[in-house]
Amino acid sequence: MHLLFGAAMVSCFLASPAGVRAAQLVSDQFNYTLNANAGGQNGGSGFAGAWGYSSQVSGSISSSKIVAGLSFSDLPVSGNAVRLSVISSSSSGFGDTVYLKRAPSAVPGAGDEFWYRFLFRMDQNISANSFYAGMDIDDAETFGGYRKFGSYGLSGAGSGRGGVGVDTGITSGAVGSPSLSDTGTYLMIAKFTGINQAAGVARTGTWWALSTADYDAIKAGGVTEGELNATHRQMATETVLPTMLQPLNFTTADRYELRGYRPPISNAFQNYDFDEIFSGTSLTDLNLPQVPEPSVSAIITLASVFLVRRLRRDRR
User: Fold this and answer.
1) 263 phi-psi bin (left φ>0, alpha ψ -120 to 50, beta other)
2) Is residue 7 in some structural domain?
3) Full residue range of the structural domain in which residue 84 is found
4) 94, part of any domain
5) Helix/strand/coil (H, E, C) string of the chain?
6) How far apart are CA 71 and CA 225, in angstroms?
7) For residues 74 and 70, what is the distance between their CA atoms, to the nearest angstrom?
8) How far apart are CA 4 and CA 6, in angstroms?
9) Residue 175 lies in a domain
10) What are phi and psi of 30, to 5 degrees?
11) Residue 187 belongs to domain with CATH number
12) To 10 degrees, what angle do helices 296-315 and 2-14 make?
């Protein structure tokens, strides 16, 4: 009887929430050949098919190439990065928009949170309006170029601010926030709720941009949402009720999209670098330092000690 009790206790510990992990959905660290075209690359995990490249302007000389990988403090990185090199409005008389898209093989379920992160860097300072660059979810169900939701390293709000969008607009970081337009590398983290819910459920997006100093200040012991709220270079939130043109659903027909939109600079190109993309249904799926949890072995040891003590006591 005691043995059965002990076995049941171990099973309960193993099935406890402490041992449950949410689902990582996709990852890509761009382990591709340096200087190769990004379009057609199909590494990483969790995707259905390869990255597809396109540009808005017919005959544009914009491009998407594999470049040297980004680094960020002691965050584990691997392989290379991808660069969207977007021809600017002032160099050509028009501003191009470049897209790099890839469909997922799995998406969040009803009621799940949706998290993603990526490293982001631009190679020149910009403090102008009417442009943005970042990662979003592209809608396969409506007209071309429509995004369902996403986060942006630079949103065109001026003063080097980024932001988040859960509709066709972008809510930017606070006025006066330290600029992201300084050629530094930033860790972008985004959280979305209300995905794949019933009609009428509000959708919320939260975005954080971390400098290396911010990350170093919170990485010990694991990164938490509370620490992100307290320590960041920029942060933005947006909540909206859905409309017919703002569907809450995220399906495997939709695509993760890296986008660079109409840079208004005097040089020929603006370069946007992306690296270390991860997504999942919780913060713990993003390959960041985690808050320690009791290990399975420690739980089994404690349960075994309890069982041995019970047996010894009953023999006396």
Assistant:
1) beta
2) no
3) 24-286
4) yes
5) CHHHHHHHHHHHHHCCHHHCCCCEEEEECCCCCCCCECCCCCCCECECCCCEEEECCCCCCCEEEEECCCCCCCCCCCCCEEEEEEECHHHHCCCCEEEEEECECCCCCCCCCEEEEEEEEECCCCCCECCEEEEEEECCCCCCCCEEEEEEEECCECCCCCEEECCCCCEECCCCCCCCCCCCEEEEEEEEECCCCCCCCCEEEEEEEECHHHHHHHCCCCCCHHHHHHCCCEEEEEEECCCCCCCCCCCCCCEEEEEEECCCCCCCEEEEEEEEEEEECCHHHCCCCCCCCCCHHHHHHHHHHHHHHHHHHHHC
6) 23
7) 12
8) 5
9) yes
10) 55, 50
11) 2.60.120.200
12) 160
Q: How many independent structural domains does the chain possess?
A: 1
Does 36 fall in a domain? yes
Residue found by looking up tokens 């979305």 in the block = 192
**Count of C-beta atoms within a 10 Å radius of residue 291:** 11
Mind listing the pLDDT tens digit of every residue in the chain (316 residues)? Answer: 444 444 444 444 444 333 334 689 999 999 999 999 999 999 999 999 999 998 877 777 889 999 999 999 999 999 999 999 888 765 555 667 888 999 999 999 988 999 999 999 988 766 656 677 899 988 775 544 566 788 887 765 556 788 998 877 788 888 778 888 888 999 999 999 988 877 677 889 999 999 999 999 999 999 999 999 999 999 999 988 766 555 567 899 999 999 887 766 655 678 899 999 999 999 999 999 877 655 544 454 555 555 546 555 665 5
Tokens standing for 23? 């689902």
Residue type, 316: R
pTM of the model: 0.83
Query: Tokens for 149?
Result: 């939701």
